């Protein structure tokens, strides 16, 4: 059963790329009791090693702790802030939301996220235009001199949203990818006997190009890499069924393809066989655009066998990211099953017998 209070604490901790200190410290407190070694590397990746009982492979499980956000890039003479996105935002999702500005001195200032446009009451026919991220500004509700005294260029911004249980789902602003950090923690807690040396890595700077995972994979040099991430659940109005990618309540997703990697086919087969054997609901995922830390683990190493376990999620990169509680449990169950079985099969490519 999903521990909503633990999940909520992980989802609500702030941390955009390169500003992951608070969330890393929180995760470290939960990971330390279930691993044999815990360390932080120069990129801020949190690496927990749980040794196996035999001569099993090195397995790296990666879930990123950073959330999309902004840096303050300009403060105008009226005290409004202009911002630089750190990660991919759809500007349509930002209008009339709230955000928090995190200052260099540690203060947290509430802000309104608004478009630089006339109010609807003042617009003439034909004046409305497509919204661009450059049109977004933040309003702190303070006089300009007080804004300039409190905020500096380079201060960082997170969106504000609560974590709620909605029907048979959970909704929050940071399921991507804090949900999978929670899944990794729960799997490490529930793990039984295993021969593999398991490296549970809370990676940094994924949203700006898989940067943390590259550094961590270089150090760990895994033979098997398994990324944990959310994926698109396009089972909503406006998306045709053939473009949905995955559906909510359909089980965990075993990724075959995205723009960062093509999963090792033997590893995909092993994951599917384990799910079938243990009665774990799953679906097969092909994501046309987007990537995960599996791409970094594959490219930095000598070609580790990699794949991704994904949690189907509606409204990704918004303050209303939504995932099924049953799909979360299915992902934990399959991750535990795989980690206990890692090393029981080879995923290597082989020469033909007559070569």
Describe the protein's architecture and organization.
The protein contains eight helices and 17 strands. The chain has two domains: 4-67 and 173-341, Aminopeptidase; 69-159, Elongation Factor Tu (Ef-tu), domain 3 (Beta Barrel), CATH 2.40.30. The model has no long low-confidence stretch (mean pLDDT 94). It has 355 residues and is α+β, with helices and mostly antiparallel strands. The N and C termini lie far apart (51 Å).
Q: Give the rounded overall mean pLDDT.
A: 94
Give me the strand/helix succession: HHEEEEEEEEHEEEHEHEEHEHEEH
At the fold tier of CATH, the topology name of the largest domain is: Aminopeptidase
Q: CATH homologous superfamily of the largest domain - what is it?
A: Zn peptidases
Q: Which features does this protein show?
A:
Elongation Factor Tu (Ef-tu), domain 3; single chain; Aminopeptidase; alpha+beta; 17 strands; 11-stranded mixed sheet; 355 residues; 6-stranded antiparallel β-barrel
Detail the topology: elements first, then pairings.
Layout: H1 4-12, H2 21-31, E1 37-40, E2 46-50, E3 58-64, E4 69-75, E5 81-86, E6 97-102, E7 108-115, E8 136-139, H3 144-150, E9 156-159, E10 164-166, E11 169-172, H4 175-190, E12 197-203, H5 211-220, E13 224-232, E14 252-257, H6 265-278, E15 282-286, H7 293-300, E16 305-314, E17 321-324, H8 325-341
């Amino acid at each position: 059963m999903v521990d909503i209070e633990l999940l909520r604490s992980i989802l609500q901790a702030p941390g955009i790329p390169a500003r992951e200190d608070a969330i890393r410290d929180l995760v470290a407190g939960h990971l330390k009791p279930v691993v044999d070694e815990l360390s932080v590397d120069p990129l801020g990746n949190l690496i927990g090693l749980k040794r196996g009982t035999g001569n099993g492979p090195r397995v790296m499980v990666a879930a990123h702790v950073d959330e999309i956000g902004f840096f303050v890039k300009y403060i105008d003479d009226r005290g409004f802030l202009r911002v630089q996105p750190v990660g991919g935002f759809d500007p349509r999702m930002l209008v009339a939301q709230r955000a928090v500005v995190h200052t260099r001195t540690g203060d947290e200032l509430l802000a309104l996220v608004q478009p630089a446009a006339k109010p609807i009451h003042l617009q003439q026919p034909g004046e409305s235009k497509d919204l661009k991220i450059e049109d977004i500004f933040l309003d702190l509700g303070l006089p300009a001199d007080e804004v300039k005294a409190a905020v500096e260029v380079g201060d960082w911004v997170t969106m504000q949203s609560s974590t709620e249980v909605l029907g048979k789902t959970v909704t929050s602003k940071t399921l991507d990818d804090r949900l999978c950090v929670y899944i990794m923690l729960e799997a490490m807690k529930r793990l039984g006997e295993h021969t593999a040396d398991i490296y549970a890595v809370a990676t940094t700077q994924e949203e700006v190009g898989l940067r943390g995972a590259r550094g961590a994979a270089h150090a760990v040099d895994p033979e098997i890499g398994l990324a944990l991430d959310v994926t698109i659940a396009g089972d909503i109005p406006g998306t045709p069924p053939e473009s949905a990618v995955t559906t909510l309540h359909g089980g965990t997703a075993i990724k075959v393809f995205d723009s960062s990697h093509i999963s090792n086919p033997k590893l995909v087969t092993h994951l599917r066989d384990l799910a079938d054997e243990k009665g774990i609901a799953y679906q097969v995922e092909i994501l046309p655009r987007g990537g995960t830390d599996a791409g970094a683990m594959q490219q930095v190493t000598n070609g580790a066998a990699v794949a991704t376990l994904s949690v189907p999620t509606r409204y990704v990169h918004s303050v209303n990211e939504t995932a099924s509680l049953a799909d979360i449990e299915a992902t934990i169950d399959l991750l535990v099953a795989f980690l206990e079985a890692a090393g029981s099969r080879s995923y290597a490519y082989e020469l033909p017998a007559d070569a």
